[in-house]
Design brief:
Length: about 300
Amino acid sequence: MKVAIQVPATMANLGCGFDCLGLALPIYNTVIVEETVMPGTGVEINIIDEKNQEKVANIPTDKNNIVYKAIELLYSYIGQAPDEMKITIKTQIPVARGLGSSASVIVGGLMAANELLQKPADTAVLLSIATEIEGHPDNITPAIVGGVTLSSWEEDGSVVYRKLPWHDDWKITVCIPDYELATEISRSVLPKEVSIKDAAYNLRKSAMFVEALHTHDGELLKMALKDKLHQPYRTKLVPGLSQIMENLRHTQGVLGCFLSGAGPAIGVISCGANIGEIKEIVSNTWGDINVNTQFYSLPLDCDGAKRIL
Ligand code: HSE
């Protein structure tokens, strides 16, 4: 049996919603799992960059691969262990840029295993196992269900989530710099504790964010796209971030921008703006410090991960 699962890229945090807000984008990784019939062939893992059709180096292709680990966990959920299999990961999502590449392959591996095992796990179980592996649900939930999501990882390990409405006139420009930033490094610069003042700041901004989406209120969204819990600490890892935010602050139609997940990609939300102008400001600001930028202007992926084979 052969199964292919296509999983979207995701942007997490969205400014104020550290570890709880996220959205899915139509850039995809595909995880293909094939049960091989020849006994003793072991596990074969190939990772291919879809853009240039080249094999991706520097990612484990043995049982330490995160996709294999996800598959193993789903098998162990029903008391089994995976056997011989061939795993192919086709990637479109840039690695270590804050676009949920690890969440996508975890979800792809879990869902492929779930299909091979005749679906013992429902969405709630998949969310819970995937979040356990990833450590936070904000990329995992939109990767599985699509759209814009609010998620909470509860004390019992379950993930409670809701999809939030989005409006087609709010455009997302994804700005991806030409360097990588590992999530562990980006999390290591965060303080263990924050002041009640900063916590209260993000609390009211996140409440505003949710209300803005429900009422299609661009002015409220503009006020909500702020953060004091993670972005201020991460600016030192993303040179140019504060300058880009400042330079876009007065650009016609820009509602706000945010560090995508742990960075270094940046998301810009706009309504009726000149997208070319946004791209020019970002590429000039990063260009001044010799960083090249790749852009995507994309709608949301509303459906999340799906089986395509
Ligand atoms: N919420 C996470 C973080 C997303 O900001 O570290 C990164 O995967």
